[in-house]
Amino acid sequence: MSIPEWKWERIAMDFVVGLSKTIRKFDSIWMVVDRLTKSAHFIHVRVDYNAQQLAKVYVKEIVRLHKVPLSIILDREMDEQSDKTIQVLEDMLRVCVIDFGGHWDKLLPLCDFSYYNSYHSSIEMAPFEALYGRVCRSPIRWFEVVDVKPLGADLLKDAQDKVRSIQAKLLAAQSRQKKYADRKVRNMAFQAGPVSCRLALPPSMSGIHPMFHVSMLKRYHGNGDHIIK
């Protein structure tokens, strides 16, 4: 799968379903991720939304901010990197929903913010920095930029606590996904033997792995036109 050339041109999306219903009757989260910057939006929806309702939400929450993408990758079509990002986000969001209870839909913007400002190893920076070219000031540091205690200090303190909690859940989700991936990865050495063969490929085909199993061999049936050396 080709690497996107610009931000929010090619996106991946999936749904987190089966969540506890909020007071406003939302029971699902729509995850939309930019494949280049790894920035994402988490949108509260309902599992009974039809295509027209989802299209209206998409225009309101995504198109107005990032224009219409060139391509949309669904779950079954995702490359490994996009799939890994989606899995980490789903893990984090499910834990946050449990913690936030019946008001989780109102706290999704803090999940957005926390994810945007968390380091992503595949791009070696936070998605916010990849998207906007600068580091974002976290709510955790809002008290540092003013000499006088700001209005709504309790609200800021609550935001600080929730951002810290969400970031901890994101780190835990990333760690769980890494452990799962590491269990599936193992170093394998291939060499010619009784059940494997090596092709003598020309330099122009160096990108092709030369080893294959004997089960892939088939009897050659010539028609007299081929010259075998």
Automatic annotation (TrEMBL):
Q: Look up the domain of life of the source.
A: Eukaryota
Where would one find the signal peptide in this protein? none
List, in alphabetical order, the Gene Ontology terms for molecular function in this entry: nucleic acid binding
Please report the stretch or stretches of sequence annotated as the Tf2-1-like SH3-like domain: 191-221
InterPro entries, alphabetized: RNaseH-like_sf, RNaseH_sf, SH3_Tf2-1
What Pfam families does the entry give?
Answer: SH3_Tf2-1 (PF24626)
Q: What is this protein called?
A: Tf2-1-like SH3-like domain-containing protein
Q: Which organism is it from?
A: Solanum verrucosum
